[in-house]
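Subject: for your reference before the review

Hello V.,

The reviewers asked for a structural picture of the protein, and I figured it would be easier to keep everything in one thread rather than splitting it across files. Below is the amino acid sequence we used in the manuscript, unchanged from the supplementary table.
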Amino acid sequence: MLLTSLIDHTKEHYGEYPFIYYGDKVYTNHDVEVIAKKISLLLKNHGIVNGERVIVSMQNNPEVIFSYQGILRSRNIVIPVMYVLNHNEIRYIVDDSKARAIFTSAQVLPKIMEATKNLSHEVTIFVTDEIDQESYQNDNIIDLYTAIKDINSSEEVLESSEENNVAAILYTSGTTGTPKGVMLTHNNLTVGPFYTYEMKQKQGPIEQGATIGVLPLAHIYGFGVMVANLLLGESIVIFSKYDLEKVCETIEKFKVKQFAVVPAMVHDLAFSAIPERYDLSSLEAVNCGSANLPLSVIEAFEKRYNASILEAYGLSETGTGGVSGHRDGVTLRQGSAGIPYPYVEVKIVDPDGNELPKGEIGEVIVKGPMVTPGYYGRLEETEKAIQDGWLYTGDLAMMDNENYLFIVDRKKDLIIRGGFNIYPRDIEEVLSKHGAVSDVAVIGLPDERMGEEVVACVVKKPGIEITEEELISFTQEKLAKYKSPRHILFVDSLPRNGVGKILKRRLREELQSKNVRMT
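And here is what came back from the structure prediction:
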């Protein structure tokens, strides 16, 4: 299915309906189509058509979706970029992709201008809200709504693309090194949501509802939510930033049954006092991905709301289709990422690529229509990651006899201490159950004698005191002594990316730069 066919799909199956709520503004699916067509023609008028790369970098707002649809309708390629990146990180993406245009907001514009200084190619910047023109005397900066005001949206647009054409390039977050551009086709980005749509259709007439768009639309997780909402005819209440109080207000007002979250949000919903002030009885489930969720948090959430947490597993390289998940007809199994979707093949393999028996831990490799064709401009890395059609994910997991997938850790996060493999998640699960621990990340740091030593970085709950020795003793009651941390480091917060994933590489670098010793 083409991403540009999504609006036609909504009109055919649901007619005109409120698709986006944003503050006091409401946009129907028809409004989205009109603005997207104008953006498409605007790009065409600037000679930006047929496979050019176009960046969208701004906080969540309706213009993100308008821009996506407009860029795709001009047969260009969308590059979603997290606006929280610094100007050097954005510059790298602009330069690597040779993006011809950027859609951004006034809030992010200064950073974009800094990122595009003295590039080897020209970049046109479209700003989606009002700016002080006197402060930006630059012919390459264009006010979007002024520019499209007189464009006739009924003018002829370019012919449709093809399902296997690249529609988007998502740059990895850089948690393990230099970001790479993951190319994703129209098919990669629609196969998963379309499967969900077909399953719901078989159950009877689809009930239109509302969901919450609080995840970054510039991340594959948020991008997938956008596609699914259009297929299912759902309204989406968009938040520019996460605010638990406003999320609770929205659940109550729109009787939200299900929405997508990251672990930090589940933690807030489970333990904060704020939800007590609202009627959240409509909530049936939340879809959680992007990072591991401690079992203690799952249990607290489900007890409080009598609602399910549907964990899933996927990565940028598997588009919006993902790899596995809990869904209708799949019995919930806590701690697992569900079972593989019907369109996905999954194997657990050893370092030589040999398939392992059920119950053994190895690397996850996957095959299916959701797998990326490769990394933009990086043939060697593509050939390393995709072999005989199988994507080597770099994630370690175990599959049980009923095909439930249990993600253990990132392959690069595995700690090898004195020849023994230690999985950080095992230790994080134990520490997260201690009443004094609010957040935790376990990493390995170089050690002359043992190769690596185990270090736990812990954020304490406010008002609770705990010592390093007490926490180490606590882990040794639950785990073999060789697995327990050598050191507990108390920190104010853990570095995370835009969807809540802990940046362990950055954490290791920070500690090593401070000369943290294992002696």
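For the response letter, the relevant points are probably these. The two ends are 58 Å apart (CA to CA). The CA atoms of residues 21 and 237 lie 5 Å apart.

Happy to draft the paragraph if you're swamped.

O.
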